[in-house]
UniProtKB/TrEMBL annotation:
It comes from the Bacteria. Residues 3-92 form the Thiamine-binding protein domain. Belongs to the UPF0045 family. It holds the Pfam family Thiamine_BP. This is MTH1187 family thiamine-binding protein.
Protein backbone atom coordinates (compact mmCIF):
# COMPACT_ATOMS: atom_id res chain seq x y z
CA UNK A 1 0.00 0.00 0.00
CA UNK A 2 1.17 3.50 -0.82
CA UNK A 3 -0.35 6.46 0.96
CA UNK A 4 0.25 10.03 -0.16
CA UNK A 5 -0.73 12.48 2.52
CA UNK A 6 -0.47 16.13 3.43
CA UNK A 7 -0.75 17.50 6.95
CA UNK A 8 -1.44 21.22 7.16
CA UNK A 9 -1.60 23.16 10.40
CA UNK A 10 -4.32 25.80 10.49
CA UNK A 11 -4.39 28.91 12.63
CA UNK A 12 -0.62 29.27 12.87
CA UNK A 13 0.02 31.83 10.15
CA UNK A 14 1.30 31.57 6.62
CA UNK A 15 4.71 29.96 7.22
CA UNK A 16 3.96 26.33 8.14
CA UNK A 17 7.27 24.67 7.23
CA UNK A 18 8.37 24.06 10.81
CA UNK A 19 5.07 22.33 11.60
CA UNK A 20 5.23 20.19 8.47
CA UNK A 21 8.79 19.25 9.43
CA UNK A 22 7.42 17.78 12.67
CA UNK A 23 5.22 15.45 10.61
CA UNK A 24 8.04 14.52 8.22
CA UNK A 25 10.31 13.67 11.17
CA UNK A 26 7.75 11.07 12.25
CA UNK A 27 7.70 9.56 8.76
CA UNK A 28 11.48 9.42 8.51
CA UNK A 29 11.80 7.84 11.95
CA UNK A 30 9.31 5.11 10.96
CA UNK A 31 11.84 3.32 8.76
CA UNK A 32 9.23 2.78 6.04
CA UNK A 33 10.02 3.70 2.43
CA UNK A 34 8.94 7.28 1.87
CA UNK A 35 9.32 10.32 -0.35
CA UNK A 36 8.48 13.95 0.39
CA UNK A 37 7.85 16.61 -2.24
CA UNK A 38 6.38 20.10 -2.22
CA UNK A 39 2.79 18.88 -1.87
CA UNK A 40 2.71 15.42 -0.27
CA UNK A 41 4.64 12.81 1.61
CA UNK A 42 4.24 9.27 0.26
CA UNK A 43 4.86 6.28 2.46
CA UNK A 44 4.76 2.57 1.63
CA UNK A 45 4.00 -0.42 3.83
CA UNK A 46 1.22 -2.52 5.28
CA UNK A 47 -2.13 -0.90 6.13
CA UNK A 48 -1.72 -0.81 9.91
CA UNK A 49 1.87 0.42 9.92
CA UNK A 50 1.25 3.14 7.31
CA UNK A 51 -1.91 4.41 9.01
CA UNK A 52 -0.11 4.43 12.37
CA UNK A 53 2.60 6.66 10.89
CA UNK A 54 -0.01 9.00 9.40
CA UNK A 55 -1.81 9.16 12.75
CA UNK A 56 1.43 9.95 14.60
CA UNK A 57 2.42 12.58 12.00
CA UNK A 58 -0.92 14.33 12.49
CA UNK A 59 -0.51 14.09 16.27
CA UNK A 60 2.92 15.72 16.05
CA UNK A 61 1.42 18.73 14.27
CA UNK A 62 -1.60 18.79 16.61
CA UNK A 63 0.73 19.34 19.54
CA UNK A 64 1.49 22.87 18.31
CA UNK A 65 -1.41 23.82 16.04
CA UNK A 66 -4.99 24.53 17.10
CA UNK A 67 -6.38 22.80 14.01
CA UNK A 68 -4.99 20.34 11.44
CA UNK A 69 -6.09 19.47 7.91
CA UNK A 70 -5.27 16.02 6.53
CA UNK A 71 -5.49 15.08 2.85
CA UNK A 72 -4.88 11.40 2.12
CA UNK A 73 -4.84 9.27 -1.01
CA UNK A 74 -4.17 5.51 -0.89
CA UNK A 75 -3.19 2.93 -3.49
CA UNK A 76 -4.23 -0.37 -1.91
CA UNK A 77 -2.68 -3.14 -3.97
CA UNK A 78 -1.92 -6.37 -2.09
CA UNK A 79 1.26 -8.16 -3.06
CA UNK A 80 2.98 -5.13 -4.57
CA UNK A 81 6.18 -3.95 -2.96
CA UNK A 82 8.58 -1.16 -3.90
CA UNK A 83 5.77 0.70 -5.62
CA UNK A 84 7.26 4.08 -4.73
CA UNK A 85 10.17 3.32 -7.01
CA UNK A 86 8.70 0.97 -9.60
CA UNK A 87 5.76 3.22 -10.52
CA UNK A 88 8.07 6.14 -11.26
CA UNK A 89 10.51 3.90 -13.16
CA UNK A 90 7.67 2.69 -15.39
CA UNK A 91 6.70 6.24 -16.31
CA UNK A 92 10.34 7.21 -16.91
CA UNK A 93 10.78 4.18 -19.17
CA UNK A 94 7.80 5.28 -21.28
CA UNK A 95 9.09 8.84 -21.44
CA UNK A 96 12.47 7.62 -22.71
CA UNK A 97 10.87 5.84 -25.69
Amino acid sequence: MIVAFSVTPLGVGEDVGEYVADAVRVVRASGLPHRTDAMFTSIEGEWDEVMDVVRRAVAAVEQRAPRVSLVLKADIRPGVTDGLTSKVETVERHLAQ
